[in-house]
Automatic annotation (TrEMBL):
Residues 12-106, 137-226 form the DUF4429 domain. Pfam families: DUF4429, SHOCT. Coiled coil: none annotated. InterPro entries: DUF4429, SHOCT. Residues 251-278 form the SHOCT domain. This is DUF4429 domain-containing protein.
């Protein structure tokens, strides 16, 4: 088709085999759109195209992705608010006839339907990071690191120490929006242990969100990138831990001593954790 349609916060370009969505970076544009920047949606990833009345004199042209085709929407699991849906193009009602033309033209070219057995849409690229309430999460494309904060992390997480998870050991992610109660990001192991998982604030494989921590535009692209990497790397791998900064080790031993003096860790736990930190030098 080769045409371009500009709506509020985004521009859609219709190519022969895909729809390229370019999001604006204006102050009124949802921050998730700004974080995504540009996305190419193959026609093979689209289930349907809809056109419906919008709010205050607008119409909404919407792509409906196939289940399993987009790691971002799979990670979101239906939790995005309507205004943050990256597949909606809002247009003035005066352009309804034009929108209907493109909706019909796209529908005629769709050939796939039903769930997809693989991701067809690219995930956000690493490296990615965000600050959660109880720690900092980073992803370099091959592994996820959780580094606990001094004030927000639970004693259970401090005892476990900072965590590193190769994506080869993960089966997926569990993302709960920071806009709801008990928002968090949990990494799901490829071989889960017995019993129910601990609450996110006690689980070293989770970081918890809070007011101003883990916002959607940071934590959701992060979750999508990890999910896509985990699905694309089925084989296990051995990783060699990197040596830590001596100053960082000294600070963590100091914090461990404070926990010990406050009676939050036992003699055995203190000795074992201190030896573990010293071994990283």
């Amino acid at each position: 088709m080769g045409d371009v349609v500009a709506g509020f916060h985004a521009v859609w370009e219709f190519e022969s085999d895909s729809v390229v969505i370019r999001y604006e970076r204006g102050i009124r544009t949802p921050r998730l759109f700004q974080a995504l920047g540009e996305r190419r949606i193959p026609l093979s990833a689209i289930e349907d195209v809809t056109l419906a009345p919008g709010k205050r004199g607008t119409v909404v042209l919407c792509l409906v992705p196939r289940s399993g085709a987009d790691p971002l929407m799979e990670a979101a699991a239906g939790q995005l608010k309507e205004g943050s849906d990256p597949y909606r193009l809002v247009l003035p009602v005066e352009r309804e006839t034009l929108a209907a033309y493109y909706a019909d033209a796209l529908k005629e070219r769709l050939t796939e339907s039903g769930p997809s057995d693989r991701h067809l849409i690219a995930a956000p690229e690493a490296p990615l990071q965000f600050k959660a309430y109880d720690g900092k999460a980073t992803f370099d494309g091959t592994s996820v690191q959780f580094r606990w904060s001094w004030t927000g992390a639970s004693t259970a997480k401090w005892k476990a120490g900072d965590q590193s998870f190769p994506v080869t050991a993960l089966s997926g992610v569990e993302w709960r929006s920071p806009e709801v109660f008990e928002g968090h990001l949990r990494l799901l192991p490829r071989e889960p242990g017995a019993g129910s998982p601990a609450q996110p604030d006690q689980d070293p494989a989770s970081v918890v969100f809070g007011l101003g921590y883990g916002p959607v535009h940071e934590s959701l692209p992060f979750a999508a990138a990890v999910l896509a990497a985990a699905r694309n790397r089925p084989a296990a791998a051995v990783t060699v831990p990197a040596r830590r900064d001596p100053a960082d080790i000294a600070e963590r031993i100091r914090h461990l001593s404070e926990l010990y003096q406050a009676g939050l860790v036992t003699d055995e736990e203190f000795s074992a954790k201190k030896a573990e930190l010293l071994a990283e030098l």
